C-alpha cells in the first residue's frame, strides 16, 4: 500500500492485488461494502494519517478504479460540509480552501512505445504540455501541474500510472543529467505518431 498526498484535502492510495490477497479480499469484493473492505479502508486512513498527515474530519468522497497490472487506486477527498440553515458557519466569512496543486511531477517509462501510448491517450487534452527526457536509459516525462483543472488532473494521473511510474526526480536533475528530447513532448508525439 502506498499513499500520496495530492493536496491539503486529497490523497491517492495505491493498493496492490497482493495487498488485497493478503487480506483475503478478491478483486471484485473491493467495490462492495463488506467487513474486510471496511477494515482495509480504516487501515488505509491510519496509514494516510501516519505517512502524510491526512486526517479524516467530516464528510469525504471516495473514488476507486482499477489499474490492470498494478491494483486499485483510491482517491479520498475531504469535502466541505454543507452549512445548516441558521448555523454559526453561515456567519463566518472565511473562504473555502482551494486545491493546493503540486508544482510538478515526473513519470518514468521503460520504453519509447509506452511514451507514444501515453501521447495518444492524452492527445485530446490541449491544456497539457510536458517535456520529454532520456535519463539513465529510461524515458522521463516532466509535467508542470499548475494549469490543470482537477478532473483533467485526475484523468491524466490515471493514464500516466497505466503506462509509467511516478518517480522522485526533479526537472533540475533532468536538465542537468538527462538529455532533453522535446520541450513540447505531446505536440511532438501528436505530429509524428498521430496514427
UniProtKB/TrEMBL annotation:
Organism encoding this protein: Ferroacidibacillus organovorans
The family this protein is said to belong to: Belongs to the MecA family.
Residue ranges that the Swiss-Prot or TrEMBL entry lists as coiled coil: none
Protein known as: NDP-hexose 2,3-dehydratase
Pfam families cross-referenced by the UniProt entry: MecA
Highest taxon above the source species: Bacteria
InterPro entries: MecA_C_sf, Neg-reg_MecA
